[in-house]
Design a protein that fits this description.
heterodimer, A: alpha/beta, B: 14 helices, 0% strand, binds adenosine-5'-triphosphate, binds magnesium ion
Chain lengths: 330, 266
């Protein structure tokens, strides 16, 4: 059953146009001029219970705007949306009690308070039963290895430590739906891995529905089974990650290492994509030549040291897709 | 957990956070005490020149002064969140976080900080005590009740002004200056009996920003005097209710501001 239903969602921001110079500022006081920014131009999708969806798109595409509407912060200019049968901005208090939200760019915690005090405060804000709270908290602390951090004021935490605390904080009231807006921004590689593992576990083992926004395509590859791609306020694609990948870039790749310098290879349906010393990356169309046949053909003619079939990098797929749709930054 | 209990939890958290900087707590309180003590010297100096002001003795003016300053000090401590609302919540987008939590917005902003500043309150209390003993004010239960009711009305009024200030910052970032004129200016104006002012200014302080209703009129009743401006005696002790009316109006305008935020964002 669909947990999130969005239909024809529109959002137009009205921003004051500032005229240059002091005189412009004074005139602006008397008569403001407005410019409209269409951040969402009719967005529709539905997300089922237990899904983990990657919600991606270039800068300014409208991802954060969508998440803010879904989480009850903003009201749309048009269209409809329902989450678990509630209209987020109309039923704000009931709605937000049932969701968890993390904005990677902003802290949800209390800067000057020790982490554990912030957690306790959230228990009371969300009216979580004390026994249940202790259980959830201890589980999350274990899962995210927060034990040593609990007594530190939030302002002293590193970005990665803080982000783990943020995600735990968003889960203390056991929401069934989690919105994550760039949860890995600015994290180093181990911290990113920790966040991914955590989100994956919450989704797999607890059945938490997750909507994940990120510019790190490794996050998407590691976690999402489905992607929704948005550009300039419209949905450009909404399909399983594999289908998306295949649709954008059908070709497959082999990387071959040779005993000597990499040779030039002329086989129909095969193109060279990159070469570096003894190593060669070839693209092939699986409809024209099968991977075993290609490998056999190369091995028959040249001294191979190693060969492996790889997928095009997800970053390359996305870049190609944005190019095709002219979806670069608005 | 109900709203009041949650508010107390917020207060506990705020106190703990402030106690991480105990020295700053001491310095700020001392500074506030002496800062406002200088004001009362200014008032006393006026009496050196005139003897009485418009029929009021120095002791009586000290009571007016003490009541309004105590009300302001009591309102100032819990409303810090509204005072810094523009720069701290709207401009930084922190109000998003408020909206993400299943509690009313006003309660959460109120819970932002309980400012531990006792300097002004202490000083106002001392001035009040000195004035009260000079005019031999009697403290019957009815008088004490009237005093508490007057202070409550004053706290409501000043809180209302701060809520309005915060609301204004949904529209403009320069709300702080405007509201400071109202709060600090209001305290300044309310320190003196209303009948020292020109008629238009008295009306402003009675009907628009009802400082007179939470300071002047009930204090006249407290002093057992009759109003030189001619307000009927039965009305005097009722006027602090206008402080609460003002706060209620401010909170409904606040809701408009919150709705406005929903359409523009941070
Ligand atoms: N509060 C606001 N007022 C005016 N315009 C806004 C506001 N918030 C966002 N916008 C504009 O709306 C458009 C969509 O912004 P949004 O933040 O939703 O993009 P995004 O997909 O999250 O981008 P990013 O990947 O950079 O975070 C942008 O053109 C942005 O400038
Ligand atoms: Mg964004």
């Amino acid at each position: 059953m669909a947990q999130v239903v969005v239909e024809g969602l529109r959002k137009t921001y009205r921003v004051a146009v500032r005229e240059p110079g002091a005189w412009g500022a004074i005139r602006g006081l008397a008569r403001r001029r407005w410019r409209e920014i269409e951040a969402l131009a009719g967005v529709s999708f539905a997300i089922g219970t237990g899904e983990l969806v990657g919600f991606i798109g270039p800068n300014g595409a409208g991802k954060s705007t969508t998440i803010k509407i879904l989480s009850g912060i903003l009201r749309p200019s048009g269209g409809a949306c329902e989450v678990d049968g509630l209209v987020p901005w109309r039923d704000r208090i009931r709605h937000v009690a049932r969701i968890g939200v993390v904005f990677g760019q902003r802290t949800q915690l209390w800067w000057d308070l020790p982490v554990i005090d912030g957690f306790d405060l959230l228990r009371d804000i969300y009216r979580v039963d004390p026994a249940r709270y202790r259980r959830t908290r201890d589980e999350l602390v274990g899962l995210m290895r927060l034990g040593p951090l609990l007594d530190q004021p939030v302002r002293q935490l590193s970005l990665g430590q803080r982000m783990r605390c943020e995600i735990a904080a968003a889960m203390l009231h056991e929401p069934r739906l989690l919105f994550l807006d760039e949860p890995t921004i600015g994290l180093d590689a181990p911290a990113k891995l920790a966040v991914r593992e955590l989100v994956g576990t919450l989704n797999r083992e607890r059945g938490v529905t997750v909507v994940l926004t990120t510019h790190d395509m490794q996050d998407i590859e590691a976690l999402a089974r489905r992607v929704i791609v948005i550009g300039k306020g419209v949905i450009l694609a909404d399909e399983p990650l594999d289908a998306f990948r295949a649709g954008v870039l059908a070709e497959r790749r082999v990387v071959a290492d040779f005993a000597g310098e990499a040779p030039r290879i002329a086989i129909p349906g095969v193109e060279e994509r990159a070469r570096e010393g003894r190593s060669l990356e070839l693209a092939f169309d699986p409809a024209r030549i099968a991977a075993p046949a290609l490998i056999a053909a190369i091995a028959a003619d040249y001294p191979l040291e190693d060969i492996r079939v790889v997928q095009p990098q997800i970053e390359e797929v996305i870049a190609r897709f944005y190019d095709l749709h002219g979806a670069g930054e608005a | 957990m109900n709203g009041v209990a949650l508010y107390l939890r917020y207060v506990g958290a705020s106190v703990r956070a402030q106690m991480q900087y105990p020295r700053s707590f001491l310095v700020l309180n001392t500074a506030q005490f002496f800062g406002s003590a200088i004001e009362i010297l200014g008032v006393a100096a006026l009496f050196g020149v005139f003897g009485r002001i418009r029929g009021w003795s120095l002791g009586e003016v000290a009571v007016f002064y003490g009541v309004i300053n105590a009300a302001f000090a009591l309102a100032d401590a819990p409303t810090r969140g509204f005072e810094v609302f523009g720069p701290e919540f709207v401009r930084t987008g922190a109000f998003d976080r408020v909206l993400l939590r299943p509690r009313t917005t006003a309660l959460q902003v109120l819970g932002y900080e309980l400012r531990l500043r006792f300097g002004r309150l202490l000083q106002a209390g001392i001035v009040f005590a000195v004035g009260a003993s000079a005019v031999r004010l009697s403290f019957t239960p009815a008088q004490v009740l009237l005093l508490a009711w007057t202070l409550a009305g004053g706290v409501a009024l000043f809180s209302g002004i701060l809520v309005l200030q915060a609301t204004l910052s949904f529209w403009t970032v320069d709300a702080l200056e405007v509201a400071n004129i109202l709060t600090y200016g209001g305290v300044q104006a309310g320190q003196y009996p209303l009948n020292v002012y020109a008629a238009w200014f008295r009306d402003l302080l009675t009907y628009v920003i009802p400082i007179g209703c939470v300071a002047y009129f009930p204090v006249v009743a407290l002093l057992g005097a009759s109003d030189p401006l001619g307000a009927p005696g039965w009305l005097l002790p009722l006027t602090p209710a206008f402080g609460f009316l003002f706060l209620a109006l401010a909170l409904s305008v606040w809701r408009l501001g919150v709705a406005k935020y929903g359409s523009t964002g941070s």
